[in-house]
Amino acid sequence: MSEGSGLDRAPGSGWSWRYRAHPVRLAHRQFASMAECFECHGGLKTESALALELGRRLGLPRWGPFLAISTRRVLHVHWQGETFLPMFQFDRDLSIRSAVSRVIDELIAPFDDWELALWFSQPNLWLGGATPVALVLSDENGVLGAARADRFIALG
To answer: Domain range holding 72?
Structure first.
């Protein structure tokens, strides 16, 4: 098969083929899945839109989100030249919810920003198949326990 086709010949198997996900297509699917999940919990906002809202509503400096992102204090993903922030992690006054902050603190070492966002948006076996984003506000201890278990597994 041609390079980049998504198909590979299985090693030593003559005619067997196995599917190999193309990294760009996989990233598209993952982002679409995250966006769909987060849409049910406040949606996503770009960093610049959030900065404008902070300035307009609260009179805060527009660099606030930049600092939180650079220190990995908020959940965010970089996608196609933009930085997106899931809004479930913010209270009405746009402060960071302590429940989400505690979970991020548990997972910051083993996961990069993309993996962290995926973790919140995908079904989790420790949570009975529910997504962490769906339970983080109603079952903070359960989600924190799932984060600790997954951190332990990821770090070995």
So the answer is: 21-155
